[in-house]
């Protein structure tokens, strides 16, 4: 366990930042270009997790546990979001037989 | 007795309340009795006041009642003033008022609105007494407007006839035009003298210079008020229309009392007017113009009441002419005598109309002398009095005015005498058309002809007696009289008299002047006799073409039509313009324009709401990036 | 227990009672409406007519932001309390003849509004004043929108947006003043003490003036009013014209001029001119109106214009005239709309052309209507005369030509009022008006109260003039000093 911590601390902070940025960007692009609601949903999770990773990394870097506690909150929130979000998607699918978000353009003027 | 002066207006007020509340429940005799007794009681109290005042050395009493309005420095008490002028006016109002009430019990006996009529009449007497008794301009103004209201109610008494209702409205509105002048004059009086009380104003005014600007404006505005109330040019057209009211109303309000309120007010404020000679000059001209205009209209009218109405306007013109030349006593003298003979003439006309089953057109009368002997005799006395033939009352008062006019301006005198000639002509024309010749009405009317009941003839007789002897209260020096009236009123006009040039006519000139006007009147009478009795002429039917002058006169110089096209119609179209264009399209259009603008703007903005989720997310990301960039480079 | 709190909250409690009253709401409303009147009567009896503020209530409300529940009564407020609590029972009584759907809600809204009005008339805290201002607006919106005529939604939306736009601008001014006070207070006394420069005061003047001018309404902010008066149910029209527009007038006297005296000094003439234009303009429009309610609405604009002119002339006569005329106008216009309502309800039309000759079948109504008309045209010995006399005198002391122009109301008022009276009451009856039935007991009692008030105030106005005299002269002094110092 000691070793793992040390090994982790050995990784430079820049690498974590870079990795999270890449994951976040993948998430953003996924949300922007995909039309399948489930994929968009997954992309959002990806962005959330990129943030989580960053929070953990800084937490270790600063030797401050509050960042990691915050991650737990985000995970709980994500779980709740999944519950509601997936339920919505299921309802959409039942009604339209599709999960394409571009069909859902009724909410306009 | 003077301290009980509040009883004088109180009795008619009580009469009004009793008759007003009991108009449907009380019997006609009770109503008539209440109405008459209320005024009679006032008359008796007035008589007591008059006697006491005559005996007393002090000639002016103020009787305060309560504080009416006070706001800041403005304090207006509700108080009464008794002096020779108001005491005499009280006697006229209550005395003639009583006679006319008595007459009305007979005249209105068949009318369904008997109770209403008497309550209105009593209310009128109440307001008229307030006008006369008020010790300041505001209380006078209450009465001033109050009599206007009663005039409105009584002209429109038979309100189901919509032309009568319109006549009532016209009278009220024309009076109101004058009232605005009066009201602004009151404000100006207050700012000039810091009070509206007569007793405070007049001594202060007496020390001002003649021709003071404030005084000229005040008096001009007061005169505007008098023009409206006393039916002078250009606001006289309501008075002939006011004949829509029952005849006793015409006699009481539109001949004897209310219409003379303007003269009373000016006589009351004589000192202000004396010190504003320019205004007096205007008054004289307006009076003269009115008297000539009305007299020339009266000569062609065929409605018996219209003749009397124009005659009233014309006689009021005489009074204003008198005021204008500073003959305050003379003008007030004429108010008194005119009240006698004009009330008499109207009541006589009422008696004729009553006998003729509500026929008013003289072309359908004629030969009534035999059937209505009392009416004929009394009316003849009234006619002689108004024509100014000695020794009847009108002679003295009219000649007193004319003598002053001669002194002032001889051209005015000539015109005044011409007016007197016209007066004599149209009055005798009316008499001859009505009472001489043969009957021209329907047979049904002829069967119905009868002399009026004694409740109507007694007032006629009393007024006839007064018309004969009324002039003796002011017999001028040249007939060896002491002119009691002048002496009695001298405390009221004393200050003015000191500032006016005195009458300096020698006796021979005065005799010549009288002789000329009497000769003119007699000539006109003979001419009328020739034309209508000897030749038996009857005025032409409406459809027959008249000569230019006759047409102008017959159509009252088209003054009503001119007013309609100059004032009424433009105002109506202005109203429509304001409502439809300025209000609806202009202002409201602007307001609605804001709403429309908001809708139009939202129409273009709402296109952003495309419904594409991807687009929303893109905009969100774009926004975040933009914020990031902004925060990095700006801060 | 503070009597003033009782005064303000009794209507609120009454509103709550209404909601649970169900079928008996109507008669209960009649009884409950007398309670605030009784409290006012008690307050009037114990009122000392000097310049001081009495029955003061000062409770912390949101102390962090300097908001206090501060209210009190001086002579100016007292008259408006009398007005409000006198008219509400009359208005409720006058509504008894109507079939009202969901009446418990209707009466609850009236009581709710009464509370807001009382708050406006007694508030001594800017925030509280604003709260009362809006509380009074919301119920009247619903009264008009739920029980009004055919175009009610459209017309009411305009009325609502119009007034709320004005009051939001006023809120800005109140907040601005709040921020300027040294201890961040909303207290009116602190507002009075501020010494802002005259251009700032000019802005504040306009911010307040817009709100008040729309409410009164003063030309050219009046176009919502004829439509709203026409479409609203009669009780709503009475509330609007009888009481609510006095909020604007009261606001001018209590807030606008004392808070921004220099703004008033610079812009008072403009406001005065607008008021006088309104008098003549609305009178002329009233000439040719054929809709009885619309005619009364325009006449109300003219009369309120005169009140406003009297205030902006800013002298003792004008202000005292405005005070008593607020009361008079309330009484007269409520009476006027009540008569109009009687006629409309029986004839089913508001068109003057279709009426006529009603005096014959309904003589009692004719008498009452005549008294109200006379009060409105300011005949002496009716209440209207006292007010208009003092108002015109006030305007006269400012400028004689303005007085002559404003005085045209004496003539023009007679023209359109008598025209209306003639068209409705006089002339011959047509086949519809012959069967007109005269007023019954409820109607008679309303009209009797109104007529008696008109005549009694006209004959003996001193008790009412006396209430506000000291307070007004104090206010006048205070503002004039500030202007003089400048």
Give the overall pLDDT of chain C as a whole number. Answer: 90
Please count the beta strands of chain B (DSSP E, at least 2 residues each).
2
Instruction: Tell me the span between the first and last alpha carbons of chain B.
Output: 97 Å
Largest sheet of chain B: 2 strands, antiparallel
Number of domains of chain C: 1
In short:
The complex is a heterotrimer of chains A (109), B (635) and C (486). By secondary structure, chain A is mostly helical.
Task: Give a written overview of the molecule.
The complex is a heterotrimer of chains A (109), B (635) and C (486). Chain A is mostly helical. Chain A is built from four helices and no strands. Chain A is elongated and about 55 Å long. Chain A starts with a helix and ends in a 13-residue tail after the last helix. The mean pLDDT of chain A is 86. Chain B has 635 residues and is mainly α. In chain B, strands 1-2 form a two-stranded antiparallel ribbon. The longest helix of chain B has 47 residues, at 559-605. Chain C has one domain. Chain C is 76% helix and 3% strand. Chain C has a two-stranded antiparallel sheet with strand order 1-2. Chain C is globular and about 70 Å long. At the B-C interface, strand 1, helix 5, helix 6 and helix 24 of B face helix 7, helix 12, helix 14, helix 16 and helix 17 of C. Chain C: It comes from Daejeonella lutea. Chain C: It is a multi-pass membrane protein. Chain C: Its main location: membrane.
């Amino acid at each position: 366990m000691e070793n793992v911590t040390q090994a982790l601390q050995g990784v430079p902070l820049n690498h974590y930042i870079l990795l999270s940025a890449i994951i976040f960007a993948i998430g953003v692009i996924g949300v922007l270009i995909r039309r399948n609601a489930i994929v968009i949903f997954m992309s959002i999770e990806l962005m959330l997790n990129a943030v989580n990773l960053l929070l953990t990394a800084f937490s270790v870097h600063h030797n401050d546990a509050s960042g990691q506690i915050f991650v737990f909150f985000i995970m709980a929130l994500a779980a709740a979001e999944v519950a509601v979000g997936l339920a919505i998607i299921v309802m959409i699918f039942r009604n339209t037989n599709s999960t394409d978000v571009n069909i859902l353009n009724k909410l306009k003027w | 007795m003077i301290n009980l002066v509040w009883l004088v207006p109180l009795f008619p007020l009580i009469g009004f309340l009793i008759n007003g509340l009991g108009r449907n429940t009380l019997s006609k005799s009770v109503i008539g009795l209440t109405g008459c007794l209320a005024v009679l009681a006032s008359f008796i109290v007035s008589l007591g006041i008059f006697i006491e005042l005559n005996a007393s050395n002090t000639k002016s009493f103020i009787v305060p009642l309560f504080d009416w309005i006070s706001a800041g420095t403005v304090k207006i008490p509700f108080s009464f003033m008794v002096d020779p002028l108001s005491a005499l006016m009280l006697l006229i109002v209550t005395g003639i008022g009583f006679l006319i009430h008595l007459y009305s019990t007979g005249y209105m006996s068949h009318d369904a609105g008997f109770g209403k009529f008497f309550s209105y009449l009593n209310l009128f007497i109440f307001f008229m007494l307030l006008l006369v008794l008020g010790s300041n301009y505001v209380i006078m103004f209450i009465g001033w407007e109050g009599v206007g209201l009663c005039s409105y109610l009584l002209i429109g008494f038979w309100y189901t006839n919509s032309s009568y209702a319109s006549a009532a409205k016209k009278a009220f509105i024309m009076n109101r035009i004058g009232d605005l002048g009066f009201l602004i004059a009151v404000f100006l009086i207050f700012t000039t003298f810091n009070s509206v009380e007569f007793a405070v104003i007049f001594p202060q005014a007496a020390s001002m210079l003649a021709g003071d600007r404030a005084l000229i404006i005040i008096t001009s505005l007061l005169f505007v008020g008098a023009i409206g109330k006393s039916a002078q040019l250009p606001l006289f057209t309501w008075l002939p229309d006011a004949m829509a009211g029952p005849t006793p109303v015409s006699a009481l309000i539109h001949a004897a009392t209310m219409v003379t309120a303007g003269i009373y007010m000016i006589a009351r404020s004589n000192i202000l007017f004396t010190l504003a000679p320019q205004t007096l000059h205007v008054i004289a001209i307006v009076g003269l113009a009115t008297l000539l205009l009305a007299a020339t209209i009266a000569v062609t009218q065929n409605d018996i009441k219209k003749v009397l109405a124009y005659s009233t306007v014309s006689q009021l013109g005489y009074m204003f002419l008198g005021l204008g030349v500073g003959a305050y006593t003379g003008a007030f003298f004429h108010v008194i005598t005119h009240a006698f003979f004009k009330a008499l003439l109207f009541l006589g006309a009422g008696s004729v109309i009553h006998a003729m089953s509500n026929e008013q057109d003289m072309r359908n009368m004629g030969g009534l002398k035999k059937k209505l002997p009392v009416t004929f005799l009394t009316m003849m006395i009234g006619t002689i009095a108004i024509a100014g033939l000695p020794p009847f009352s009108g002679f003295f008062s009219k000649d007193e005015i004319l003598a002053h006019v001669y002194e002032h301006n001889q051209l005015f005198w000539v015109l005044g005498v011409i007016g007197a000639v016209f007066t004599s002509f149209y009055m005798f024309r009316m008499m001859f058309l009505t009472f001489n010749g043969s009957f021209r009405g329907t047979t049904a009317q002829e069967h119905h002809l009868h002399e009026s009941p004694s409740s109507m003839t007694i007032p006629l007789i009393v007024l006839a007696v007064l018309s004969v002897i009324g002039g003796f209260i002011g017999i001028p020096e040249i007939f060896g009289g002491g002119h009691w009236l002048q002496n009695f009123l001298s405390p009221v006009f004393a200050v003015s008299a000191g500032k006016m040039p005195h009458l300096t006519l020698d006796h021979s000139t005065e005799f010549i002047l009288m002789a000329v006007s009497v000769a003119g009147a007699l000539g006109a009478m003979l001419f009328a006799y020739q034309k209508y009795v000897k030749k038996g002429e009857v005025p032409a039917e409406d459809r027959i073409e008249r000569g230019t002058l006759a047409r102008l006169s017959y159509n009252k110089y088209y003054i009503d039509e001119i007013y309609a096209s100059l004032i009424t119609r433009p105002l109506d179209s202005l109203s429509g313009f304001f409502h439809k264009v300025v209000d609806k399209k202009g202002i409201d259009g602007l307001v609605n324009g804001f709403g429309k603008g908001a809708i139009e703007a939202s129409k273009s903005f709402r296109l952003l709401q495309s419904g594409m989720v991807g687009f929303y997310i893109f905009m969100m990301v774009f926004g975040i990036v933009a914020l990031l960039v902004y925060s990095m480079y700006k801060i | 227990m503070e009597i003033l709190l009782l005064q303000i909250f009794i209507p609120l409690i009454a509103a709550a009672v209404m909601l649970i009253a169900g079928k008996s709401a109507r008669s209960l409303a009649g009884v409950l409406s007398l309670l605030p009147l009784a409290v006012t009567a008690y307050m009037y009896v114990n009122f000392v007519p000097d310049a001081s503020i009495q029955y003061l209530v000062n409770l912390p409300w949101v102390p962090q932001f300097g908001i206090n529940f501060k209210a009190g009564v001086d002579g100016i407020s007292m008259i408006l309390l009398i007005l409000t609590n006198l008219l509400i029972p009359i208005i409720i009584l006058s509504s008894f003849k109507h079939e009202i759907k969901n009446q418990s809600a209707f009466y609850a809204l009236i009581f709710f509004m009464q509370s807001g009005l009382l708050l406006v008339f007694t508030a001594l805290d800017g925030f509280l004043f604003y709260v009362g201002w809006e509380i009074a607006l919301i119920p009247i919106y619903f009264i008009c929108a739920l029980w009004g005529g055919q175009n009610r939604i459209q017309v009411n939306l305009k009325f609502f947006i119009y007034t709320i736009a004005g009051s939001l601008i006023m809120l800005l001014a109140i907040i601005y003043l709040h921020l300027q006070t040294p201890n961040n207070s909303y207290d009116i006394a602190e507002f009075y003490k501020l010494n802002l420069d005259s251009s700032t005061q000019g802005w504040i003047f306009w911010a307040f003036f817009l709100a008040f001018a729309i409410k009164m309404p003063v030309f050219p902010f009046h176009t919502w009013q004829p439509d709203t008066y026409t479409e609203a149910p009669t009780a709503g029209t009475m509330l609007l014209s009888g009481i609510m527009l006095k909020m604007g007038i009261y606001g001018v006297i209590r807030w606008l001029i004392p808070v921004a005296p220099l703004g008033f000094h610079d812009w008072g003439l403009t406001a005065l001119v607008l008021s006088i234009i309104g008098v003549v303009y609305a009178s002329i429009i009233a000439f040719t109106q054929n809709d009885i309610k619309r005619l009364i609405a325009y006449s109300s604009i003219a009369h309120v214009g005169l009140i406003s002119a009297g205030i902006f002339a800013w002298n003792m006569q004008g202000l005292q005239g405005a005070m008593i005329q607020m009361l008079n106008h309330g009484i007269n216009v409520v009476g006027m709309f009540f008569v109009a309502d009687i006629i409309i309800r029986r004839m089913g039309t508001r068109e003057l052309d279709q009426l006529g000759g009603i005096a014959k079948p309904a003589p009692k109504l004719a008498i009452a209507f005549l008294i109200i008309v006379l009060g409105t045209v300011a005949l002496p010995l009716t209440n209207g005369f006292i007010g208009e006399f003092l108002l015109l005198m006030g305007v006269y002391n400012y400028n004689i030509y303005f007085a002559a122009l404003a005085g045209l109301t004496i003539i023009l008022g007679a023209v359109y009022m008598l025209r209306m009276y003639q068209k409705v009451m006089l002339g011959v009856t047509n086949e519809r008006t012959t069967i007109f039935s005269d007023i019954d007991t409820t109607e008679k009692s309303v009209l009797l109260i109104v007529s008696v008030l008109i005549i009694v105030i006209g004959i003996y106005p001193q008790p009412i003039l006396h209430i506000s005299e000291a307070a007004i002269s104090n206010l006048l002094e205070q503002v004039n000093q500030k202007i003089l110092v400048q």
